[in-house]
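Re-run with default settings, no changes from the original entry. Doing this only to confirm the output is reproducible before filing.
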Amino acid sequence: MAVLSRWLPVCLQSKNVRLNVQKQTTGAKRHGIPDMPGAIFNTKAMGEALRAERAALGMTQAKLAAAAGVPRQRISEIERGENVT
């Protein structure tokens, strides 16, 4: 997850695709994690955020995958919240 959380936004931004993520802080403060705008703490929330933003941009999984340079199946896995490395 750590590799993906660094890689995907950078890759998408490099292709002029902007990924906006809503603030996700559920349970974070209980675990001593600082309040970070835009932070996502689990793969399911990340997948949901990616799917929502992709849909808002009117992009298909195939188009996003092409822009990110990954197979379409990888986008599908991420959107389902699978732990992809």
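The helical segments are 2-14, 43-56, 61-68, 72-79. The two ends are 6 Å apart (CA to CA).
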